[in-house]
From TrEMBL:
Enzyme class: transferase
Coiled-coil regions, chain positions: 83-110
Protein name, entry field: histidine kinase
Pfam families linked to this entry: HATPase_c (PF02518), HisKA (PF00512), PAS_7 (PF12860)
PANTHER family in UniProt: OSMOSENSING HISTIDINE PROTEIN KINASE SLN1 (PTHR43047:SF72), TWO-COMPONENT HISTIDINE PROTEIN KINASE (PTHR43047)
Entry EC number(s): 2.7.13.3
SUPFAM superfamilies: ATPase domain of HSP90 chaperone/DNA topoisomerase II/histidine kinase, Homodimeric domain of signal transducing histidine kinase, PYP-like sensor domain (PAS domain)
Keywords: Coiled coil, Kinase, Membrane, Phosphoprotein, Transferase, Transmembrane, Transmembrane helix
Naturally occurring in which organism (per UniProt): Bradyrhizobium quebecense
Catalysis performed (reactions): ATP + protein L-histidine = ADP + protein N-phospho-L-histidine
Ranges of residues in domain Histidine kinase: 611-828
Cross-referenced SMART domains: HATPase_c, HisKA, PAS
Transmembrane segments: 59-79
Amino acid sequence: MSGVVAAMRRTLLSCTSLARDGMLGLAITALLPARTSFAAESLVAQAMSDHFGFNHQEVAVLATSFALVGFSAVAAILLMRTRLRATRNEEQLQSEITDLQAQSDRLRALLFVEPQVLISWAAGDNRPQISGDVSLVMSQESAPQRILAFGTWLPPEPALQMDHAVDALREKGEAFLLNLSTSAGRAIEAMGRAIGGQAIVRIRELGGLRRELAESNLRYKTLQEETELLRDFAAAAPWPIWAKSLEGNLRYANAAYVRATEGKSVSDALQRNLELLESDQRTELTRALNDNANYAARLPIVVSGERRIYDVQALKLSGGSAGIAIDASEAAALRAAIARMVEAHRRTLDQLSSGVAVFDADRRLTFYNESYRRLWGLDQAFLDSNPDDSSVLDRLRANRKLPEQPDFRAWKAKLHEAYRAVESETYTWFLPDGRAISVVTTPNLEGGVTYLFDNVTESLDLARRYDRLTRVQRETLDNLGEAVAVFGSNGRAELFNPPFAKMWKLPADALQGEPHIEAVEALCRPLLDDALTWRTLREQITAIENRAQVALKLERKDGSVLNCMTIPLPDGKTLLAFQDITDTENVERALRERNEALEAADQMKVDFVHHVSYELRAPLTTIIGFAHFLSDPSTGPLTPKQAEYLDYVTKSTNALLALTNNILDLATIDAGAMKLELGPVNIGQAIEAAAEGIQDRLATDRITLKVDIEPNIGAFVGDERRVVQVLYNLLANAVGFSPHDATVTISAHRTEHSVVFSVTDAGPGIPAEMRDKVFDWFESHSHGSRHRGAGLGLSLVRSFVELHGGRVRVDSIVGRGTTVTCDFPIDQTAHRNAAE
C-alpha cells in the first residue's frame, strides 16, 4: 500500500512538472482517456473491494492513483513524439530556408549582373522600395529617394513622360516600356509592370548590342511612323500624286489623282492605268527624267472639263518614278495681276509730281519717273543704263545740283545707310540754285531703297509767311478792344488776349497751361453765375456736329453788359469774343424808353384825332344840312351879304367834312378795318370824276389840267371810289403847289401787270431830305407856295394804293416840279390770293 501511494506521488509530481514546463494541455489530454469510462472504474473498484478487502474510499484513491499513472505515461509518450516531430520539422525548415537563401542569392546575382534599379510599390502604400545600382541615375552622395524626382536626372519632356507612365501603372496597372536619355547623356530603358499586387519599375542602362538594337528599333519605328504619315498626307493631299513603274504603269495614285482623271476609285485608276497628262506631255516628262532624274514644268491640264494651270514635279526613282501636280491657276492669275498692278503703279508714279527713284539691293537704278528726271535734269540715256546710286550722286555733284558738303564721301556714306536701315529717313536739301528739296529714303522689303524727292521751296516759303502772319495776328489780337479766347475741340483754352483776362479780372497766369473751359468757368463765376449761359458755351465749344454761331447777351453782377459771340473755326476750334456794351446798352435803353414815350404820344394823338373826328362829324353834318336848307329858295330870300356868308360857311364846312373823312379813313386803315369794294374801274371815267372835283380851284388859280391817257387803256380791278379819291388828292395837292397860269398833267398807261397813274406839277419841288416825310400824317410844308393843308392827302394816297397792292413813289427836282406815280395791279383778286 505504501508502494502504491509512493507511485501515485511520483505521478502527481510528473504532472506538476509538465504543467510547470508549459505542457498543461498535453497533461490534460493524457488524463482524459483515464476518465472516459465510469463502468471500468466501477469494475475495478468492485474487484479491489472483493479480493483485497479495500473499502470504497480506498478503492477510489487507488483508482485515481492508477489513472494519474496512466496519464503520466501517455503524456510522456506524446511529449517524446512531439519533440521528435518538432526536431524533424526544424531540420526540414532550416534546409528549405537554406535553399531559398541560395536561390535568392542566385536570382539577385542574375538580376543585378548589369547596372539597373528596381522600384516597387505595394498595393495601397505610397512608400516605394528601391534597390539596385542607384548610381545609374544619380550620384552616390544623393539620397536614394531622389530617384523618384525624375526631373533631377531626366530632361523636362522625358521626365513628364515618365511621371505619366508611373501614375498610369500605379493607378490602372498599365504596363509601359520607354527608351530615354538622362540629363548626363546616358541611354536607359524604363519598364513598368504590375506583379503580385505590386507596381514594379525597372530602370537599366542600354549599352552595346542592346543599345544598338533599341536605337534600330527606334529608327525603324520612326521610319514606320514617317512612312504612315507620308502615306496619310499623300492620300489626303488636294493635289494629284502618283507613282509609276519602270514600264510606265501606274502603281500608286491618291484620291485627288482619281478625281482629276475621273476614275471611280484608286483601284479603278490603277487597273485602267488612267493618265493625267497628255501624250506629248508624258513623252517630254519621260525624256526629262531619263536625262536629269527630275522634271519640273508648268503645264495646262484639263480637269473636270476645265483647263487649268498646274506645276508638275516628277522624280526618277530606282523602281520607277513619282510625280505631283499642284494647281497653279490662282498663282498664275495672281502673278499676271501683280504684273498688271506693277505696271499700273509705274504709270501712276509717272504721273506724280514727286520724283521717284528705286534702287535695288545692288544699288542700281531700276525705276524712275519723269518728275525725277525733270527735277534733276538728268539725261534719259544715262538713267536707262541702270547706273548705281553713287554714280547718280557723283553726276549731280558735278553739275552743282547737290548741297555743298565739306566731306562729300562721308555725306554719301551717311545717305547710303538707308540700304541697311529698317525705317524711313527724311532730309531737306538746300540746293545751290535756291531750291529746297525734301528727300525721303525708304528701305524696300526685297532690298534696296526708294527715294522720294519733293520740291518744298514754295511750302517752306508759305510756312515762313504763315509764321509771320501768325505773329501779326497775335499782335492784332493782343491789341484788340474785344476780349478774345480760342478753345480747342477738347475744350482747352489754346489762345487768349490780354483784354480777355482784364475783362474777367483774372490773374496774369490764370490761363497758362491751356485750362479747360470748366476751369475758366470757375474763374469767371464770381462775375457771372448763370448756369444756363455757361452750359451753352460749353456745348458750343465741345460740339462735334451742328456747330453754328451763337450770340448771347450777358449781364454780370457788377452791372456791366457784354455781347458774347461763339464762332466755329474751320479746324474744329471755337472762338469766343466778348465786347463790353454797357454804355451802348444804357444809351439804347434810354432811346428805347424815349421811343416808347413817343409812340405812346403818337398813339394818343391818333386816338385823339380819331375821337375828335367822330365828334366833329355830327355837328358838321348838321351845319351843312342847315346851310343847304338856308340856301334853298323855299326858305325865303337872302340878302346878297347873307348869301355870301352862307357860301363861305358851305365851303368851310365842306372842307372840314372832307378833312374829317380823310382822318377817319386813315384811322380805319391804320386799325386794319378798311375793306375795299372791288370791281371794274374805268380809268378814263375815274380821271374825269377826280378832275371834276377840282374844277373850281383850277378856275380860281388859273391852272390848266392836261390829261394824257393811252388809247383803249380799258379798265382794271379795284375800288373805284378809292381810286377816284386817290386821283383827287393827287390833283388837289398838285394844284395847291403850282403857281398861277401853270399846267398840271395827269397821265395813265398800262404795263404787263399794272396800271400807272402819274400827276406832275410845276411847283417848287421837294428837297431830298423831306421826300421820306411827305407821306406822314400832318406833314405839310408850303415850300414857298400857296398850298395850305392838314398834310393828310399824300398819306391817304399811299394808304389806298398799298391797300390795292400797289406802290407810290415821288420824283422831284427842286425848282422844277414834282411827279407822284401810283402803280395799281391789274388783277386785284390775283394779288389778294398771292398775298394770302
